[in-house]
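Researcher: Going back to the complex we discussed earlier. I've cleaned up the inputs and rechecked each line, so this should be the final set. Can you rerun the prediction on the complete assembly and write out the structure?
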Amino acid sequence: MRHAARIFRAEALKQHRRVFGSKLVVFSMLIWPLLTLAQSYYTLRPLAATPGIAERWPLAADPERLLAFLATGALGFTFFFSLVQSAWHFTFERQTGTLELLFLSPANRLVVVVANGFGALVQNVWLFACFAVAGFTLFDVARVAHLGMYAVVFLALLVPAVAWGALLNSLLIFSRDAAFLYTLLDDPMWFAAGVRLPTFALPGWLRAAGSVLPLTGSLVVVRGALLDGRGVGELAGELAALAVLSAVLLLTAVAALRLGEARARRTGQLGLF
Amino acid sequence: MVVAWATLRRSWLVTRRAYPWSYFIGTLLLGVFTMGVAYLGLRAIAGDQVSAEFAGRAGTADYLGYIAVGATAYMFVVHGILWIGKALIQEQREGTMGALVVAPARRLPYLLGFAAFAFTAVALEVAVLLGFALLLGVRPTATGAVDAVLAVAALALAVFGMSVVLSNVMIVAGEAHITQNTVFQAMAVLSGFTFPRDYLPEALRWLGELIPITAAMDVIRGVFTAGTGLDPARLGVAALIGFGYAAAGLLTMPWAERRAMERSF
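Model: Rerun complete. Updated structure for the full complex:
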C-alpha cells in the first residue's frame, strides 16, 4: 500500500506541475462545462416548455429541475471526459520516451495507469463539482434521501471513472495516436450516455450501445440519488451493475497492459515508433 | 494572388497526401449528434411540438430545421477557424515561421489562400451534414439565390476576420487548445446557433454583438430559417465588424509575429 501511495503522490505531483499548475486550466475545469451546460439548457428549453410535458417527462416541466438534470449530466461528463484528456496527456509519456522509463522502474504498471487517471480526475473536476454542489444548494433542487447519499453519488462517479481511465491509459500502449480517443469518446459518449437527454428518449439500439459506457450507469445513480430522492436500497441494482462494470474495466486494463507490454517488448514499439 | 494561389495549392496537396481525418469526423460528429439530440428530443419529449415562445423568437416553428441550419453554420465556422486561425501557429510549431517572416509573401494573400482552402474543403462536410438533415426530414430553403450567397459570404467574412485576430492571439500566447475551444464554446452560447439569442440575459446578448459571427448568423437566420429575407442592417453590421476584425488583425500581425519570434530564441 505504501508503494502504491507513493506512486499516486508522484503522479499527482507530476500532473500538477505539468498541466494543472497553470491558471489557464480554469477554462477547461469550469468555463467550458458551464458554457456547455448553458447551451444544452437553452437548446432544450423550446422542447420542455410544450403543452403536456408534465405527462411525458415530469422533471422538465420545472425549468430549475431541467437545469439540474443537465447539470448532473455535465458533471458526469466532466468526470469521464477528464480521463479521456488524461489519457491523451499520457501519450506524451510515450512520445517523449518516459513511458519506457516508467516500465523499466519497479513501479507496478497497473498502479501507474490507475494513479495517472486518479490524479488527473481529482485535479480536473474539483472546481466544477464544487460549483455544481453550490448550484444545487442555491436552487434547492436536490432531493436526497439522506446526507450519506452524497458519498454514494461521489463514489458512483469516482470508482467507474478511475477504472475507465485505467482502461484508456492501458489501451494507449497499443497506439501512440490518441486523436481517435477524442473523436470516439467526446460527442458519441455524451450522446449515447444520456448526458443531455433522458435515456427513455433514446432508441433501443442506442440505449444498448450506451449501456457499456460506465458514464451511463453513473448518471442513473447520480440522478436517482440527487433528483429523485432514491436511497441505496432502491439503487442497489444499478450500484451492483456499476461495480461489476468497473471490475470488468479494471480486469480489461490489466489484460491490455500485459498484452501491450509483451507486444512492445517483441516489436520495440514503445521507444521506436 | 500568386501567394494566395500557392497557399491554396499547397494546402490541398498536403491534405490529399496526409489528411487529418479526425478533424473531418470530429466536426461532422458534433453536427450529427446536435441534430440527433434535437430529433430525439422533439419526438420523445416534446411530442412533435415546440413552445410558442420559441416560434415567436425564432420566427419559425420548425425546430429541427432551425437546429440543422445552426449546426451546419457552426461546423462551417469551427472548421474555418481551425484552418485559417491556426495557420500561423502551425508554421510556428513546425519550425517554418522564421522562413515565412523573411519571405516576401504578404500575410493577407497567404491567409486568403488558407481561407479559400478551408471554404472549399468544408463544402464536402456541409454537404454530408445537410444530407443527414434531409434523412431526418429537414427541408432547408432559402429566400433566394442572391440572398443565400450574400448570407454565406457574410458568415465567411466574419470567420476570416475572427481567424486573423485569433491567429495573433495564438502565436503570442504560444498555445491554441485553450484559445480555440473557449472561443468555440462562447460562440455556441452567444451567437444563436442552436437557440434564439433572445433567450439570453440582455448583458450576454450585447456581449454576443462583439463577435462578428453573431450578426452574420442573424443574416443566415433571416434567409434560411425565418424566411424574412436578407436583413440589410444586420448584413451591414456583419460586414463592418468582419472587416474591422480583419483589419485590426492584419495591422497587429507584425507585432504578434515579432513577439512570437522573440520568444522562440
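Model: Worth noting: Chain B touches chain A at residues 20, 22, 25-26, 29-30, 32-34, 36-38, 40-47, 49-51, 53-54, 58, 63, 67, 175, 178, 181-182, 185-186, 188-189, 194-195, 199-200 (CB under 8 Å).
Researcher: Good, that matches what I expected from the previous run.
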